Amino acid sequence: MHLVAAGGGACLLWATLIGTTQLENRYVSPWILGSVVPCFFAGLFIWWHAPNSPVARRLLLLGVWLSVAAAVRHTTTLLSQELGWDLRPQPAGVLVPLDQVLLMISRVCNLTVSILVVRLLALLPDGHVLFRHERRVLNALWGLLALPVLLPCVGMSDLTVYYVVAYHSEAWLPGVGAALLVVRCLRARAADRPDITALLPFAALGAAVFLARGSARLFRAWHGEHGALYFVGALLGALPYVSISVTLLYAAFCHRLLGVDIVLRRSAVYGSLWLIINSWYVGMALALGLTAGLYFPVGLSLLVAVVAAALFQPVRARLNTLAERRAFGRRLSRFGLLVQFSAALEHAYDLDRLAPRLATGLRDGLNLRWVRVRLGGAGLPVSTAEAGRPPPGERPSAQYPLLYGDDALGVIEYGPKAAGRRTPEDDDIGQTLARSAALAVHNVRLAAELSAHARETQRQAVELAASRARIVHAQDTERRRIERRLHDGIQQELVALVAKLALARNRLHRGGDIDAALTEVQDDAYHVIDDLRELAHGIHPPILTDQGLVAAVTSCARRMPIPVTVHSAEPLTDERFALDIEESAFYLVSEALTNVLKHAGAGHVTVRMTHADGRLQVEVADDGKGFPTATTHGSGLTGMRDRTEAVGGELTITSRAGHGTVIRARLPERAREETRA
Amino acid sequence: MPEPPGTAPLRLVIAEDHYLVREGTRRLLEDTGEVRVLAAVGTATELLDAVGRLLPDVVIADIRMPPGHHTEGITAAHAIRAAHPGIGVVVLSQHANENYAFDLFRCGTNGLAYLLKERIGEVDELLRALHEVTAGRSVVDPRIVEVLIGSHARAADAPLSHLTRRELDVLRQMAEGKTNRAIAACLNLSESTVEKHVNSTFAKLGLAEIPQLHRRVSAVLAYLRHTPAGPV
Questions:
Q1: Euclidean distance between the first and final Cα of chain B, in Å?
Q2: For residue range A606-627, what is the model confidence (pLDDT) as tens digits?
Q3: DSSP 8-state class, residue A485
Q4: Cis before residue B66, ω within 30 degrees of 0?
Q5: Is it the case that residue A676 has pLDDT exceeding 50?
Q6: Which residue in B has a C-alpha nearest to residue A554's C-alpha?
């Protein structure tokens, strides 16, 4: 086989050399590039990787024989040019024996090519003979090789022989191959049938194109060697070899139809496909340009060649893309999918966008019928996306849960592949993507939590700023109140007192009785003292500093005009807390009691001070009319909340219309560090 | 060694950090002729020192003195009463708050008085309180009693709520350390009627067994102290 391949290569080289350098025939290069090269290299490539596959051998043989045929033809043409032989079919051929022999060899070669095509097509996909009729028919075909020898001997005209041997056989024989393949498909076991069916269209196409080409060649006989139809024939002539080569190469490596169980670098497959497609493209463009050169001046024909190249370019590009996708399909999809998914991770903050991208990418990448992706769960809203619609009732053929730790963060499930069987690599990709997606969803979850925290922090910051502003405002208001009381109240009273003393002095000078006046002054002074005491108590009750919270609250309760019961847990009575805690608790109670007096219309209030879970709990409950907590935002309540939260406590207000109000503050129990001097 | 009032001037030590008040008080009291001021000091430490040296009959102490400016007067009063049970102490306070009085009477009421500072202006009242504590009795400023009796901060079943209006009046007078006779004069009642109210008050408050001398103000105060804040 190596020898055959090497011989084929040598022939190809020889044919190319003499075809391009010595012959005047313009169609040598297009033909060799467009059909012989693709076929030979495809065969060589497959055979190289699967030397035992009959199909590979046959494809190589086909390529070799095409080379041999081309070499023989070109050699004979060269010889005829050099020696003056005219090997073209003659209406009534009387040829010298040497001519006859050469012609015969050339025709045998051509016929062999056709027979090889038949054998290649008929025995797809594995290349083994399955049925007896196949063997009979295929073996019988070899008998045709006798025709080029026998027919001239029985006196048939050279032209007729040429038609029978070259044109008709090339046109019709591939049809025989396709027909055999159809029969094979019909008789094959159910398990093998899909593979054969998949190849049948290609075989049929090849046969049809051969037929069309044969027909075109028949036309060519009428139109001569240089017509548009000749060009069409050349175009069509190259196509079947290319299509068969490409199909087999693709089938071999992407669907493993030839029993080729090899792991091959996809780039090599793609490279071969690229070579075939581009050889065909160059060949076709050349052929068109050369055809045009017959009719038009050189400049114009060049233009035509360029236009032709441009016209074929989209076809070539499309074929290349197709080849690339087919060759790299799976491999590319693995990286491509991951790359695509990595890109999609940029949108990972939005599961609604991530899910469809993942589904579509997975379906396109693995060529699946349908994919369903569900992301979310474990505290996140669930996003579901489908690429392709699963038939009703169909169970997914693969299902990968998205797990992060023990959290189920969704699931990826998909149906069977659109074509071919699912491979372990496909499942690897599914699993990898599921892991990545789980990570992505986890990230989304983290991001959501983070933004929730950020929002909460922001809200707290805003609330803090507001509360700070309120506290400052309250402080200023309180200062103004004290200032007013000092200036408008106590200072005025003292001024009046001074005036009364002056009056008393005057009376004394006049020798009058000042006893009553002094008594009045003394009473006024008592009044001022009371005012001052009250004011000082309002600023800060000394009892809170001197005796602590319980004493201060009790004392405050005693001065209420309605009954107030004070409960305090025994250990609290002598316990001293940090100054700000005590003040906060005291003002809470005093503010709450003021509110009860102002608004509640309560008959009784209970103040309760207890330890609760390591915190100081202060509760003021009344039996008043209550209020709807949701709608009331009095400044009193806000002030209480500010004061409580300022020392790290929390305030809850429970109130229902008609059922009284309970205001409960839980404050940290910070002990007093030092007594205030 | 209590002396009957009027026979000899009371030997007094004054402790008050404010100079003008201290000297004013001294002159007011010395002007009456009933009091001889042995010493007038500015801090609690000096007070204890002076009491230990001079052993006065009675002491007037400001509640708030250096160095802490909290309740040094009360602490000093306790210390004096503990060391010298015969020396009466009048604590003058600017706080019209009953809790300070409770603090003062924490370990017993005998020989102790809690007066608001402005009583300095009512020399007679002050003198009477000095004589009361010298005699081992107690006085509470009427303002404090007013707060306690007027307070609603007690449970409905508190014994004080069972007292009649007249009994509360009598109790208030008792709290000022007045005798039955003085109360009768003040309320325009006969002495026997007052005695009846006093006895019924003691009965209602459950204090009938306490000896006559002490049970009056001390019992009332002790009771008042415990009632309003206590858990129901």
A1: 43
A2: 999 988 778 899 999 988 888 7
A3: I
A4: no
A5: no
A6: B229
Task: Examine the pLDDT at B26 and tell me if it is beyond 90.
Answer: yes
Confirm if B76 and B94 have CB atoms less than 8 A apart.
no
pLDDT tens column, A102-133: 777 777 777 788 788 788 777 777 777 778 88
Distance CA A206, CA A237 (A): 10
3-state SS string over A584-652? Answer: HHHHHHHHHHHHHHHHHCCCCEEEEEEEECCEEEEEEEECCCCCCCCCCCCHHHHHHHHHHHHCCCEEE
Same domain, B135 and B164: no
Q: How far is CA B211 from the centre of its chain?
A: 19
Predicted ipTM of the assembly:
0.73
- Region B51-79: mean pLDDT is 92
DSSP H or E segment with residue A352: helix A351-366
Test B228 with A557 for CB contact under 8 angstroms. yes
Q: Do B152 and A529 touch (CB under 8 A)?
A: no
Terminal C-alpha separation, chain A: 111
Q: For all residues of chain B together, what is the average pLDDT?
A: 81
A465 occurs within a structural domain: no
Could you tell me if B123 and B191 lie in one domain?
no
Q: How many domains does chain B have?
A: 2
How many whole angstroms separate alpha carbon A195 and alpha carbon A599?
90
Number of domains in chain A: 3
Q: Which strands make up the sheet holding A650-655, listed edge to edge? A: A564-568, A605-612, A615-622, A661-668, A650-655
Give me the helices (H) in chain B, please. Answer: 19-32, 44-54, 72-83, 98-104, 123-134, 142-150, 165-175, 180-187, 191-205, 212-215, 217-229
Which positions in chain B touch A559 (Cβ < 8 Å)?
147, 151
Identify residue B48 by its one-letter amino acid code. L
Mutate to test the interface with A, among B71, B97, B232 (most CBs of A within 10 A): B97
Close Cβ partners of B219 (under 8 Å, ≥ 6 residues apart)? B202, B205, B207, B210
In sequence order, which residues have a C-beta less than 8 Å from that of residue A409 and are 6 or more positions away?
A375, A376, A377, A378, A380, A402, A403, A437, A438, A441, A442, A445
Q: Is residue A526 part of a domain?
A: no
Where helices occur in A25-153 by DSSP H, the ranges are: 28-31, 37-49, 54-83, 97-122, 132-142, 147-153
* Residues of chain A contacting B, Cβ within 8 Å: 522, 525-526, 529-530, 533, 542-543, 545-547, 550-552, 554-555, 557-568, 675, 677
By C-alpha distance, the chain A residue nearest B63 is A546
CA dist., res. A165 & res. B45, Å (int): 142
Q: Residue A360: which domain range?
A: 335-450
Is residue B47 domain-shared with residue B87, that is, in the same domain?
yes
| CATH code for the domain in which residue B193 is found | 1.10.10.10
Chain B residues close to A526, C-beta within 8 Å: 118, 121
**Of A139, A143, A115, whose CA–CA distance to A58 is shortest?**
A115
Q: Which residues of B touch A (CB under 8 A)?
A: 67-71, 94-100, 103, 117-118, 121, 147-148, 151-156, 228-229, 231-232
Taking Cα atoms as reference points, which of B139, B137, B157, B140 lies closest to residue B231? Answer: B157
- Encode pLDDT of A553-574 as tens digits: 888 888 888 888 888 887 777 7
Domain co-membership, B126 together with B149: no
> Is A564 in Cβ contact with B153 (below 8 Å)?
yes
